[in-house]
């Protein structure tokens, strides 16, 4: 008895040989493993380990935390895969925060923080070796061996004496007209040394060379903000700033100068951009300033390229890191400044588990690493702007005018209802936009045309029976793509051929409705046959390198008119663009989402800002059937304050963020009745727990109800929305409800939780 008491109150002698491991599975717990005696050291937190899990083996990561005391027999670790932790303490803490805040399994969060393959490869292929690439190179030569060589061998040795080593064998063989066998023979005689050389797979091979560095003189507003950034960098600690600068106000120039100070002082910088389309432009600017110090991370790279960039960052060989959403987890050593450009963009929110927001995660990382976090936008997210006004966090700094005092573009709104009355039919281009395009072409200028809908026609209609061609897997009509001559679902990828007869009534009254970017490109080319018309959307950039090629051609003046989706609106700097046309400005206002007006204002303001960034003034033509909506009025005036005044009252009245925290629960499954039953059971548990923790006016539960898109990829979807004054209360009742149902044996694999959702579709 005394011995048992001693073991419980004192220190378990086996405790130091146990570790907690997170595995990449949708499980909200970590698992305890014993460190076998054959392993000299207990692996530190952040280290990858190979562990037995059921009938398979998984790669997990050792995490902080005291393993619980248990009488169960523990399994041994199979292998330690890293000589030192692959995740720093700060990154491990960040991953644990993401898992808690966004209600995500820790193992899946940690997996998303690493390059593809480091946690997901089958156990049979896992080894200590990382997937590095090597090549055979010539490292040194010994001229004293010359007398023993043939004339040809002496000639090759002389050529090598004039070359900078190490030199790849394949390159020298090609240039010298030699063979690998000859070089191996020289190495066997001791005349040269061959050995493998580490090679970094470069993402820059197909890129334009970086432009010559031009350091512009900063205007007083830019200088004031740069000085404030320098002051905060010098003082140390965590700080956050919002640079609210109108389009073309020179935010990037401020970023470049601030990062120069960080690099000179030995620190590192992280720059997030919302879309892959922005990375070629901004990375070239930064490469011009910082050369080989720049690394780039985004999903458009091959696995090898991504791994090599990640490794360069981890080894401190790249101190300026540019990338999209997941780059917030880059292993940047000595992080001093993190910049989130276009912070308002919804692309920063991950749509799948783990559903983190890169901007908010960057702010948390800044806290953990005591770094400065700078958010930049011409159209800040409403919650961020409200926080800066209401609490002073982040502190807002204003760039109120464009560089070189260039004027904002002149914006005109065309009421398409009047155009319909005038012409008796719906038009793709209004008279004003058609004439403006002709003037732009006559002057040798460039134009952008925005339509945020790809494909040729948005739907098919039978004029006899009224039926449409819908996806068999999703609650959405199929889009016709003329370049493939197929109907396509943009959610699940289902395709079918274009029918000649209606599948319902058998008649031939098939009609294409609506237009997408493909149809607009065709119409523009017909109207202006001499113009060089390009298109930028997901369909045109499916092949690697096409995005970069399209943007490069446009920037170099090889394209006169570029038609595109929102990909053309985000942050691009095209000095030759003097005209921007928006073909269906109110399209986004029809969506059942409380952020619809904000997204519309942001998109219109951002795309309008692409005009007039060069020497010539810009013009914008916005076509709409709803010209009196406040988001369009504010966009016409490029007036964020006007939009904010209207939108904040709408949010206050209906208790949407920033006046509440939202948590969205989505229940999905292939059988509608069983899925609805699970949603109802979850809803009842949420209501029961709410009554125990909070008053109704502080925490409201809406639903379950069918999601706006009720069926996607063959699964029915039901939504529950929680509005809470305190986010912690909302997460508390979600956690308790899930635990109740799990104890009763209810599977929750098809229940997803989205904290701070940006899309309620």
How would you sum up this structure in a few lines?
Helices cover about 30% and strands about 20% of the residues. The protein is an alpha/beta fold and about 750 residues long.
Supply the number of structural domains. 6
Helical fraction: 25-40%
Strand content: 15-25%
* Largest sheet, spatial ordering of strands: 11-12-10-13-14-9-15
Contiguous uncertain segments of 5+ residues = 1-11
The CATH topology of the largest domain corresponds to Rossmann fold
CATH structural class of the largest domain: Alpha Beta
Overview of this protein structure:
With 761 residues, the chain is α/β, with parallel strands linked by helices. The protein folds into 6 domains: 16-125, GIY-YIG endonuclease (3-Layer(aba) Sandwich); 133-199; 220-307 and 319-404, 3-Layer(aba) Sandwich (Rossmann fold), CATH 3.40.50; 410-454 and 516-652, P-loop containing nucleotide triphosphate hydrolases (Rossmann fold, 3-Layer(aba) Sandwich), CATH 3.40.50.300; 457-514, no CATH class; 661-755, 2-Layer Sandwich (Alpha-Beta Plaits). It is 32% helix and 22% strand. The protein has 21 helices and 30 strands. Helix 17 (596-608) packs parallel to helix 18 (630-637) and helix 20 (672-693) packs across helix 21. The termini are far apart.
